What we know:
The chain is mainly α. Helix content is 76%, strand content 3%. It is rod-shaped and about 90 Å long.
Amino acid sequence: MKKIPLLTILFWLLIVFTYKFFPRIVLNEFVQYPLVLLLSIFLPVSFWLKIQDGKRYQSLIFIGIFIFNCTLLVFALERNYTAQMILEKNSGAGIYPELAEMLTNAEPLEKRQLAARFIYQRHAIAMPYKVTDTSYTLYTPSQSDHDRYKANFTRSAHSDVVRMNATQQLRMAFLYMILHAGIFLALIVFLLVYEHGRPVAKKPQDVG
């Protein structure tokens, strides 16, 4: 039991070192969960053992590690949430209404053609655009338009993958935050109740 605080610090330093130099190992979901679980148990136990030994200043090390971990998780939450919002905003799920209006209202004719061309390059949809006051013509895409659409589609697919990863990382960071803080606080409360309810050894009375 006496070595648990030292082992906890070494275990935490090992996690930090691995995250710094081998992030793919630590960021693996099947590795992250047991690491968070074990660290969430070791930290309050180590804190309590140092309190029991009367080393209160040393016990603050484990509170500091806990606060540092929570700060990193909050930072991960904020970063992934921001990335998700930016990707959602730039996803371009449909044709912008302003762009569709340009097919009929833009002047001169070249702007209407440009709008139809842009729509095809983004969505592979040939749209009719206004030629005269009473007639429309369907946009005929060129080979460069086909090539541009393929490039845009590939980029959009990549953005979708990045957005899904950001969403997953956001959920995992939130889960680890709740798990880490919940286990730490629950064990602290349990140890307080256990210590309060433990019978105090009575000193033997002097005879005579």
